[in-house]
Amino acid sequence: MLEFGTYALSESILYGQYLGGDRVQRITFDHDFTDDSDIETFPKGMRLYGNGHNIEIRELEDSAGFAYLSVSRTLRKGQIGSDVLHLHDTFGPDQTPLHWYGGPELMEQYYPIEKLRFDDYAYITKELHSAAIVERYWLNTAGVFFYVDKEVPLFLDQDDQVLRFSAKKELPYYTYDEEFVFSYRVGVAADAREAHQKAVERVLNQPVDIPDERMVRQPIWSTWVRYRRPISQQTVLDFAREINAYGFKNAQLDIDDLWEVCYGSLTFNTITFPNVTEMTEMLHEMGFRVTLWVHPFINKNCDPWYTEALSKGYLVKSHNETIGYNTKWWNSAENEASYINFNNPDAVEWFRRRLRELQELGIDNFKFDAGETSWSPPDPNIEGTRALLPSSQTVNFVRMCAAFGGMIEVRTGWGTQDLPVFVRMLDFDTRWGWNNGLQSLIPTLLQMNLNGYPFVLPDMIGGNVYGDDILTKELFIRWLEASIFMPSIQFSKTPWDIDEETITISKKFAQLHETYSDYIIQRMRLAVTHGTPVNPPIWWLDPTDKIAQTIYDEYLLGEDIVVAPVLAEFATSRDIYLPKGTWRDGNTNRVHEGGRWIYNYTAPMDTLPYFVSATFQAN
């Protein structure tokens, strides 16, 4: 066995070692390095030769409490690099099993993420499975993190034992160069919290500012679920009057699908919106800011805009001439739309200029939809650093959006944690379960925070009511309760669509959110200065707490509020695990010591279980 720093190599296995000396994580390479001639050592590292691969392992840091390593190799087209993480290694004197966090946003957002399964999964942003946030970051309870570099054409396989990272020159990645890199970094710290903070500093980044504060304090209202498409000027004004008449506050009113002449025109339909300036003036007088739903597509029947974009080279084209510029999105038929090429600076400026023209009509800002890489035609032929294709499309789209300021929202990102904007969870269905329903809400919140996106905008209260889904009174209220201590809340289906009691309960919880909005903003500012999550998992307070490491239906606001909503249909009580600390019940004022369970906590439909640190003082 060769040892250096906090790592050791034995045959095909690289061991990350706990700072006290115990092994905490194995990485299995795709070659058995048993012959000394296969190994060349150098100060702070080694090179391994075999199976046509030259692997370089280099120690980047070895300081008090933290060790940091890079593993890299250059491969030729046709080769596959494949390294394996062992998910269920144990560590410490009592051989505690590992749990894992990070990974992709998914429709069925299981937590901890060792429960996920993948089979030759291309790791790019995509609408399929709601994979809009796919940071190449994994963290375990032993205090080890892994980060696969952006230049790697990465595929995942995961079963109940291992997570396999594979690098290969295959679609959907750029396939027209002869060499590519397979490189990743490994950090080892004292515990998961320390490891995550080190990862934020080195690979994840942190936001440079906070988004719009009014979006934190007051609810966002959207026309989408309540009215679907198309929408009209009169409907928007009537909706605003209803919101005011029922005594609800607002951050802004979002005009959703369909307000355009045709998809991609970015031009109001004058039949349904006869006087946009008059409408926005009226909404402003009623106390509303106005945002507008926009998307990065142009349908082929949307002329003259489509012809202009096509003639000027503003659309994504496939290397495959048969496919050409063709794509499909949820508002087009197959091959009847194209995707704007945000890797082209001229296309970005063209798109931005048309949005500025909408703002001249009194539109305050925008809700940006889509932006994932998967909307491009297969094998896109676009500008940009080849090793970052196709995912750089997502980056350039989101950065274009963010230039409009902190009042916007996006729903995707890739290495864009620095942006001071809200990132919305992808559309939820109106269901109770894990299948893109209410039980996925908190795991998605935790996934986004632990990937470095702390400014989370949960989807609309009650979900999107697609297909045969039915929004019941109970589901609406429980969904609202679960969202209250998240950074923002948004309505589309309204409390008065249900009944008077729902109005009363909704006002109570909207006020509770507003009461704690100063603290939410305080925690957002800490995310800027220190890179800490706004809504961390409850193990954040004690990373060694084995029970807290697996809790998926509770979350923290900062380090002072534990939130434990009821997420099961017909339930009027639940068991609650309180993490380390002394906690005051937000409903009864009773004081509890943490590190233990509260069984059968009574929570009828109008009750959200939450606990405030005994030392908490509101600013």
Automatic annotation (TrEMBL):
One of its GO terms (molecular function) is hydrolase activity, hydrolyzing O-glycosyl compounds. Coiled coil: none annotated. Residues 223-520 form the Glycoside hydrolase family 31 TIM barrel domain. Signal peptide: none annotated. Residues 531-613 form the Glycosyl hydrolase family 31 C-terminal domain. SUPFAM superfamilies: (Trans)glycosidases (SSF51445), Glycosyl hydrolase domain (SSF51011). Keywords: Glycosidase, Hydrolase, Signal. CDD domains: GH31_NET37 (cd06592). Pfam families: Glyco_hydro_31_2nd, Glyco_hydro_31_3rd. One of its GO terms (biological process) is carbohydrate metabolic process. It comes from the Eukaryota. Belongs to the glycosyl hydrolase 31 family. This is Glycoside hydrolase family 31 N-terminal domain-containing protein. The lineage of its organism: Eukaryota, Metazoa, Ecdysozoa, Arthropoda, Hexapoda.
